[in-house]
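[recover] target loaded
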């Protein structure tokens, strides 16, 4: 991989190990930035910000990244060039759209902020699970995009109290169809990942507890519903909330209002689980994401873990590392302390990355 003008990092060309890669450094040196650079090269976006401009090194006006990787078939390349106005994505040297670029290489990340998935807002959870499903399902990605467009238009009609318009009924029909597809896929995804999540959690952290993920939809109970039945339910809800929607001037029904819940031993993790349990739940979730990508795409994602040493106590850290040693994954870990692991090591100091070990003080 190589990158130019990425945050505080000195431009570099780096060759990674197919197994473990460790980045050691003190705080503020660029550990998160190097993981972010890998993530950006692979996906065309950041896990820290939605504003690409922030990634460009201070006082520079453009930034670029290039990565080559092997999938099941052959060697592939991805590159991005970015300045304050334009973005250019290339796949195997050919220009492509972001939509085409995204999802080519599969990446799963674990960053301290991920705890927000438990304690944060429903919107945060929705956008996480949507991105996860979209990563291995292009149709979902497209449906979601279309849905968001139609939602905006529907809201505009509601705001203008213009729902008697003939064109509106076409939009509403579209809204219902896309909403149903999204809900249907979410139900299926949560059902599958919840089983894997429980297995991973018990294997890694606590074999005596049961962990599950629940999808909560505005349509209410959805057990056994097919796509058409879901559409029916949505239409019922629209009918029921019609007047209220007109009064508020925006959509009160739809998957943009749904949420996801983690339950540990049947109790909601958000309110009942300890800090350590919450972190462990999220780590198990990320491992389950890896399993889901392997299952759905038959490809193994790379795994980025930021700041493992400050985040987990030593028992959990050991358990995680022992687990990772047993899996055939390419892993990138940043840490402030040495880890007991056979790996390719990099030292980061003021954005400069050097091969070699970190001297513990
Ligand atoms: N666009 C940028 N250009 C230059 N430096 C940046 C940019 N964005 C952030 N930084 C700086 O990069 C440094 C490293 O940040 P970070 O990667 O988060 O460090 P670490 O994870 O090692 O604690 C910080 O001091 C931050 O202020
Ligand atoms: Mg950091």
């Amino acid at each position: 991989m190589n990158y130019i003008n990425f945050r505080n990092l000195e431009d570099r060309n780096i060759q990674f190990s197919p197994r473990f890669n460790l980045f050691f450094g003190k705080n503020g040196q660029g550990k998160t930035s190097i993981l972010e650079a890998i993530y950006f090269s692979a996906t065309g976006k950041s896990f820290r910000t939605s504003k690409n401009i922030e990634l460009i090194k201070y006082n520079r006006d453009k930034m670029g990244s290039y990565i080559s990787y092997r999938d099941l078939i052959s060697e592939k390349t991805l590159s991005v060039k970015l300045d304050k106005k334009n973005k250019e994505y290339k796949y195997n040297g050919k220009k492509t759209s972001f939509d085409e670029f995204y999802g080519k290489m599969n990446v799963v990340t674990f960053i301290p902020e991920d705890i927000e998935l438990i304690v944060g807002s429903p919107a945060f959870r929705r956008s996480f699970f949507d991105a996860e499903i979209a990563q291995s399902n292009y149709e979902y990605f497209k449906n979601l995009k279309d849905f968001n467009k139609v939602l905006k238009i529907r809201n505009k009609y509601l705001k203008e109290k213009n729902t008697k318009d003939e064109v509106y009924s076409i939009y509403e029909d579209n809204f219902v169809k896309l909403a149903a597809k999204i809900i249907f896929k979410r139900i299926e995804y949560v059902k599958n990942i919840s089983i894997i999540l429980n297995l991973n959690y018990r294997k890694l952290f606590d074999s005596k507890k049961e962990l599950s993920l629940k999808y909560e939809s505005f349509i209410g109970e959805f057990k056994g519903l097919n796509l058409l039945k879901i559409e029916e339910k949505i239409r019922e809800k629209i009918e029921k909330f019609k007047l209220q929607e007109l009064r508020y001037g925006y959509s009160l029904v739809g998957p943009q209002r749904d949420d996801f819940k983690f339950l540990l031993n049947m109790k909601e993790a958000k309110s009942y689980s300890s800090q350590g349990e919450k972190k462990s739940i999220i780590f198990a979730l990320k491992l389950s994401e890896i399993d889901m990508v392997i299952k759905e795409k038959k490809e193994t994602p790379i795994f980025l873990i930021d700041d493992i040493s400050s985040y987990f106590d030593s028992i959990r850290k050991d358990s995680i590392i022992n687990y990772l040693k047993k899996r055939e994954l390419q892993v990138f870990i940043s840490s402030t302390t040495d880890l007991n692991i056979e790996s390719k090591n990099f030292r980061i100091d003021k954005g400069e990355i050097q091969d070699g070990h970190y001297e513990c003080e």
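[recover] notes: The mean pLDDT is 95.
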